[in-house]
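#struct-help
A.M.: can someone run this one for me? Single chain, 206 residues.
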Amino acid sequence: MTDFNERARDWDSDPMKIERAQTVAQALRQQVALAGHWQALEYGCGTGLLSFALQPYLGEITLADSAPGMLEVLAAKIERANIQNMHPLLLDLEVDTAFSGKFDLIYSLMTLHHILQVEPVLDHFYRLLNPGGWLCTADLDREDGSFHPAGFSGHQGFERGALAGMLERAGFVNLSFSTPYTILKRSDQGQRAYPLFLAAGQKPGV
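D.P.: on it. Structure tokens below:
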């Protein structure tokens, strides 16, 4: 958490992060037909790059993160842009299990692999969605542990089949996966490629 607070000020200075968010936003819009009245939640929003790309296509957007430093940068960006439908929120669903609300869309980017207990959070997402609502999460395909530095305590990405099983157990239907982006990182062995998936699932309803 301290690391994300320290990195918040310079987060948007990386062109790759901006390109990644814009590309994932475009892929999300291709997988799910968004509506301008939808209530949306971005979980693990960071500085809000993905939500800024989706903001013109949604109604009210709650941007949740557990890092106060990220939310501070986000709030300043929203104020400078004079955007009225984006609302930062300090939230950690692994701790704040009583959080409630009703959303038509929940989405995340590079957040799931930081969550130690994924299935309870997916269950919570399901409860937060209106019938017919969508969950869209973009994250790392399973990798060999080289993406993060030594000492990282999260997941080394996800096998798509295993994640699909978690989503199905949570109750989601109409699952789909795409590969919207590949992160390229330099290492001692040269440049490495880390594909990202975008998983979409729907809560049954009318």
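A.M.: thanks! Residues 15-31 form the longest helix (17 residues).
D.P.: also worth noting: The first strand starts at residue 40 and ends at 43.
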